[in-house]
Write a structure and sequence with these properties.
heterodimer; A: 839 residues; Heat Shock Protein 90; Beta-Lactamase; Hypothetical protein af1432; 7-stranded antiparallel beta sheet; 6-stranded antiparallel beta sheet; 28 helices; 15% strand; B: 124 residues; alpha/beta; Rossmann fold; 5-stranded parallel beta sheet; 5 helices; 48% helix
């Protein structure tokens, strides 16, 4: 291979070594030497010109390439070929990950070469590299061993920035080996700089093209959304107008009639007319109230008027009214509740409204002789409310949209049933206000079922109140409250406490807690080094205790009454080298002991918690950041937890077990645990009608669904996930054969954790029902996964995953036979239809 | 004595028109939707039809189109009655061949006046 750098070195060596003695040797010799020099320089210039030509050629070819991955390969190929470097890597800045991502490489053996493309370099590390070079010529010479990156061991390397025409840094190329003396071969480096200037424009264009392709998909969907929004607006006007005018017409016509014929009308007609006027006025009032209510709900939350409310009693109180209405149209009402109180901290007026609307809606779409049943039950840590009817059902692709304001499945149906979509829109607002989920589904055998999950979240006790002053959108105490519920929901535990040193730094006190009696939360003082929390504070190390009643480190007398399950997990909150607080969790809702997986997750959450707490004060100035944080916490906090294991949980367990089998490091496992918990949150941004569409999706619709990955990352952003966690989430839909998204990575270039997540997501989805198919049995699901090896899935991770899944065979089968309960609660997280709450 | 066919899915509206028109000496037949209105227009041979636009199944516009498109009923005057005030409905009504248009809420007296006007013009 032709090496320009090689030539330059010998040239430089020749000129510098020979010039001095030649001058001394005399004019004739000087003439000869000059001739040689000129000849050499001419040869060198010709070589440079040839290189220049090839660069221009290559750049021209590149401009014709539109796909970024191909372009990256071409650039790396050109640098290698023209300049003769053995190792070349092209890094591009990723806005999504906020790191430089290796996008293409050359010259690495398969063994480590496959690893190259999953490498990332943070901005900080990159800046450090540049500083280490200390060279201010074109390009940056990095001495060997500066960054400890094994890719670049063995020789010095050269970094050349890729700067777009508008001066924006896009990434860089790093090459090796760079032999000694390169510092003098400035010309070659100028050539490399020149080349990268040429290609930067092409990279820029390809990135713009890529972004445009995505934008196009967004735009076409947005335009569809706009069109349907315009339809909805037209429907809104038509429906409201209709709803208002129908009763008004009767009222005004009957009034006119009375005025004109008052003296001649027989008394029974008089009564009849007045009754019509009265009923129609009531209808009118209802419609107006609904519209006002919706607009109130939408213009900010109503003042919290929450109180401990017995929902069982509330439902029973409303029952007679429903039965009266149903009897008028010969429908049957059935109310099924447990025979005990179901207390929940809610706004009773709003919940009554919710029930009234759901039942009215069901009655409206149920024919004479039909049945409407209202079920109230407790599922794990959520209260479930289901309203079923035997009516006409809802078209499958409309299931998500019916909660939109004034959405109508069919204009004529509206008319027939005398009402419009305000009711369901109000329901959606009420449920969202309570951090719950609402969704609709069709029942097997006909009719619709509306389901509501209202989370039962224990009150957060904050002995000293919310320490920081509070700005909107957070209400007083809400910051800690949301954060603790986020932790308790993420781990599925009932008890969480956040302890921090008191002002003297002598003992820990509880800053905020859930699940502890108030007296305990108020009174706890833990001395440095004593008890569990005190030890964690002193040592800065996590403690996972299997059985607090038997652990000698625990003061039994104090601790015992607080723990309904014996295990406890306590992690330090590090700020720099100091322990700034301690986070302690126990009482898993499903009754199982806390295990190593929980430890991984809580240790991954701890830095996030620390950062939120330290940043919260500084974010106060910026309402937008806070409101994003609030939404982020809301979207990532689960609604309810089962009191028994769920599919999602066992799938997560399989994933982490497989990761351990593949010998991932503890840090990697932690980030995987974090990604596993939240990777799918972006699904809430995909219009439900796309997710539920039984037919294959059109290309632009597919692109839109694919955007859920980036949407998820942006929802998580306020929680500041680590670069690795972002990377795992970003790549969890890549396929082994390169046909996945968003980057189309192939094989080992896909991070191993992302490959595992891909398997986990697919496996969990197979085990759950979809609108167009029922759930797969375990064997079918395993077969499906096996058949995807080599196409969707990596062979190595799949065999680890399958081995771990097989070893949990009986637990999965037992869960499947246990039936709907587990699936229902998993649904909002897994099946997404429930995630119509705005995120 | 003129025979008026009234199609509206709201019983209150049918009743009030029935009451008013009876008092004014009309014979009234009621229909609950567009399809029924078309059938009755054929079998009962009314002198004029009042159709509500927003009705389940076959709406007023569609019923009007059928009446005006059928040789046996195409001469029958049609008045559209609707809660909608949108110009789009008026346009659709005109295209379907409607003779007049009354917006809800309406005055029963005015309905009578409109009926008389159209029937009078028809006679002349």
């Amino acid at each position: 291979m032709y090496s320009l750098l090689g030539i330059s070195e010998s040239l430089v060596a020749a000129t510098s070594a020979q010039t001095a003695p030649l001058v001394l040797a005399g004019v004739g010799v000087v003439g000869f030497a000059l001739g040689v020099l000129l000849w050499l320089q001419r040869r060198r210039r010709m070589a440079q010109a040839r290189v220049m030509e090839r660069i221009l050629d290559g750049a021209a070819r590149l401009t014709a390439t539109r796909r970024l991955p191909e372009m990256c390969d071409s650039i790396v190929g050109m640098v290698g070929e023209i300049f003769g470097f053995e190792r070349v890597v092209l890094y591009l800045w990723s806005d999504a990950l906020e790191v430089f991502e290796a996008r293409s490489s050359l010259g690495f053996e398969a063994a480590d070469g496959t690893q190259v493309r999953e490498r990332t370099v943070s901005r900080k590390d990159y800046d450090a590299l540049l500083l280490a070079g200390g060279d201010h010529g074109p390009g940056q010479l990095v001495p060997e061993g500066v960054d400890g990156d094994d890719l670049w061991s063995g020789s010095a390397s050269l970094i050349e920035e890729l700067v777009s025409p508008d001066g924006e840094p896009r990434g860089y190329v790093r090459v090796a080996p760079v032999a000694r003396g390169l510092g003098d071969a400035a010309d070659d480096r100028h050539l490399l700089t020149y080349m990268l200037q040429q290609v930067a424009a092409a990279v820029d264009a390809a990135e713009v093209y890529e972004r445009l392709a995505n934008r196009n998909a967004d735009l076409s969907l947005a335009s569809e959304k706009l069109a349907s929004l315009a339809d909805m607006k037209a429907n809104f006007v038509a429906n409201v107008s209709h709803e208002l005018r129908t009763p008004l017409t009767s009222i005004s016509a009957y009034t006119e009639l009375l005025q004109q014929n008052l003296t001649v009308l027989p008394p029974e007609s008089l009564d009849e007319f007045l009754a019509v006027i009265h009923t129609e006025s009531l209808k009118l009032t209802d419609v107006i109230n609904d519209i006002l209510e919706l607009s109130r709900m939408e213009n900010g939350r109503p003042v919290s008027a929450r109180a401990e409310t017995d929902l069982e009693q509330l439902v029973r109180r409303l029952e007679d009214g429903w039965k009266g209405r149903a009897a008028d149209s010969e429908q049957n009402i059935e109310v099924v509740t447990p025979d005990h109180a179901i207390n929940l901290h809610v706004d009773p007026v709003l919940i009554q409204q919710l029930l009234t609307h759901l039942v009215a809606n069901a009655l409206k779409f149920t024919p004479e002789g039909g049945r409407v049943s209202i079920h109230l039950s407790e599922t794990g840590t959520a209260v479930r409310l289901a309203v079923e009817d035997t009516g006409i059902g809802i078209p499958e692709d409309e299931l998500g949209a019916i909660f939109e304001k004034f959405y109508q499945v069919d204009g004529s149906a509206t008319r027939e049933h005398n009402g419009q979509g305000v009711g369901l829109a109000i329901c959606h607002e009420i449920v969202t206000h309570h951090d719950g989920r609402i969704w609709a589904e069709n029942r097997e055998g006909g009719g619709a079922r509306f389901q509501v999950l209202l989370p039962r979240r224990p009150a957060v006790v904050q002995p000293s109140g919310d320490p920081q002053s509070v700005l909107a959108p957070f209400e007083p105490g809400e910051f800690h409250q949301r954060m603790l519920h986020w932790i308790s929901g993420s781990l599925g535990v009932q008890t969480v406490s956040l302890l921090q040193p008191d002002e003297h730094g002598e003992s820990l006190e509880i800053r905020a807690s859930i699940g502890l009696p108030e007296s305990v939360a108020q009174g706890v003082r833990v001395r440095f080094g004593s008890g569990i929390a005190g030890r964690v504070w002193a040592t800065g190390e996590t403690l996972l205790i299997a059985d607090v009643t038997r652990d000698r480190r625990v003061d039994r007398e104090v601790s015992e009454p607080r723990y309904s399950t014996p295990s406890l997990l306590c992690v330090p909150l590090h700020v720099g080298g100091d322990v700034h607080g301690v986070l302690s969790v126990n009482n898993r809702i499903d009754g199982r002991p806390l295990d190593a997986d929980d430890r991984l997750l809580l240790e991954a959450l701890a830095p996030r918690v620390t950062e939120l707490m330290t940043q919260y004060a500084s974010w106060q100035a910026d309402g937008r950041v806070l409101s994003e944080l609030r939404e982020s916490l809301r979207a990532t906090t689960s609604v309810g937890h089962l009191r028994q294991e769920s599919f999602v949980e066992i799938c997560r367990e399989i994933c982490l077990a497989a990761a351990r089998r593949l010998e991932l490091s503890t840090t990697e496992l932690g980030q995987l645990a974090f990604a596993l918990r939240y990777y799918d949150v972006g699904m809430g941004c995909v219009p439900p009608q796309l997710l539920d569409k039984p037919e294959p999706l059109a290309h632009h619709e597919q692109l839109f669904v694919q955007r859920h990955v980036e949407a998820g990352l942006s929802i998580l952003e306020p929680l500041r996930p680590s670069a690795r966690a972002r990377q795992i989430i970003l790549h969890h839909h890549e396929n082994w054969d390169g046909t996945g998204y968003p980057r189309g990575l192939t094989g080992d270039a896909i991070p191993a954790e992302a490959r595992l997540l891909r398997l986990t997501d697919t496996f969990a989805a197979l085990l759950s029902p979809r609108p167009w198919r029922s759930a797969f049995g375990l064997e079918e699901a395993l077969t499906e996964i096996r058949q995807g090896v080599g196409r969707s899935f990596c062979p190595r991770t799949t065999s680890a995953f399958l081995a771990e899944a097989e070893s949990r065979r009986y637990r999965i089968i037992e869960m499947q036979t246990r039936g709907a309960d587990a699936r229902d609660l998993a649904r909002p997280a897994l099946d997404r239809r429930g995630m119509v709450t705005p995120v | 004595m003129h025979k008026v066919l009234i199609a509206d899915d709201e019983a209150n509206i049918r009743n009030i028109l029935d009451f008013t028109l009876n008092a004014e000496g009309f014979t009234v037949i009621g229909a609950r939707n567009g399809a029924e209105a078309f059938t009755l227009a054929l079998s009962e041979q009314p002198d004029i039809v009042i159709l509500d636009v927003m009705m389940p199944d076959t709406d007023g516009i569609e019923a009007c189109r059928r009446i005006k498109g059928d040789k046996r009923t195409s001469n029958l005057p049609v008045i559209l009655l609707t809660a909608r005030s949108g110009s789009d409905d008026r346009r659709r009504g005109r295209e379907a061949g409607a003779d007049a248009y009354i917006t809800k809420p309406f005055s029963p007296t005015k309905v009578v006046a409109t009926l008389r006007e159209i029937l009078g013009a028809n006679k002349a």
